[in-house]
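Format notes (please read before filing issues)

Several people have asked whether sequences and structure tokens are stored in separate files. They are not. Every record keeps both together, in the order shown below: the sequence lines, then the token lines. Line labels are part of the format and must not be stripped during preprocessing.
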Amino acid sequence: MRKIKELGEFGLIHKLSSQINFRASDSILGIGDDCAAYPVKSGKFEVISTDALVEDIHFKLSTIKPETLGRKALSVSLSDIAAMGGTPKRIMVTLGIPKKISVSFLEKLYSGFNEICNHFKVELCGGDTVSSPKCFFINVAVIGEAKRIFSRKGAKPGDLVFVTGTLGDSSLGLKLLAKNKTRGKDHKFLTTKHMDPTPRVKEAEILGRSKIDITSMIDISDGLVQDLHHICESSNVGAQIYEDRLPLSPELIRTCKRSSIPPLPLVLNGGEDYELLFTLPADGVKNLIRQFLKAKVLVTQIGKILKPGGISMKMKNGTLKVLPESEGFNHF
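Then the structure lines:
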């Protein structure tokens, strides 16, 4: 087996890039030049984002396969494009590679990249490889297109708060991985939700194509409460959510019950759900529900937007609980 040093930077780039087989039909230049080049379509916005995953901060090499890591690295970046109502089109990947990383590991990592690129029809069109003194890291830049832009700013008092999918699964999956408890179908479902999330590109496209007045949107990466705070701060509003409407998976409910784990902290502050959290006026709800039912994807109203005054949760017993911002994930 050849070592990275034997291949050299450009030999490694050629070896890895040859594994990526999706190429956008409108690409002018892809991997192999100083820049990628493609035409810009009139009547659409370009949306651009970048995200980094760092060893021992976002993942542990001892608990995740390189193929899975490759899929997750791209998926979390595609989720940012979805959060803006966009469709991802191109990505660029930078790798920081320490000596402990093998060529075989990188080939498997790129196999994961290739799966996501093919599934979402996204072209990996360039990037960079650098040596790293200790930890392995991945930086992904993603470019997408959108007919309409959904941002965090725009929610108004009276709007309703919706979320796709279920909440807390990823956080509980991480907890199981940390305790090395991955037995049975429920555990596998939860750990997969953490290690191999699905970006809600399909759901974002439904919203983008519709005539529904989406007043604000964000993806839930740092936790429901913290990301709802981002919307409230940007829009200068408050919010109230309802405990009995928070969508929980059967797998989470069963696992929490068996292990005596309180589910609410996972659901409110766990993070890395990568679901879409968005607001809209009440007169758009029927259209929203109709389109999501037709697409067979889950969406749930979990609250409402209020005048400025923070975020609270109406508990099942009818009392109100103030939800502070700082309980979600924060790098620093």
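For reference, the curators noted about this record: The two ends are 40 Å apart (CA to CA). The chain has a mean pLDDT of 91.
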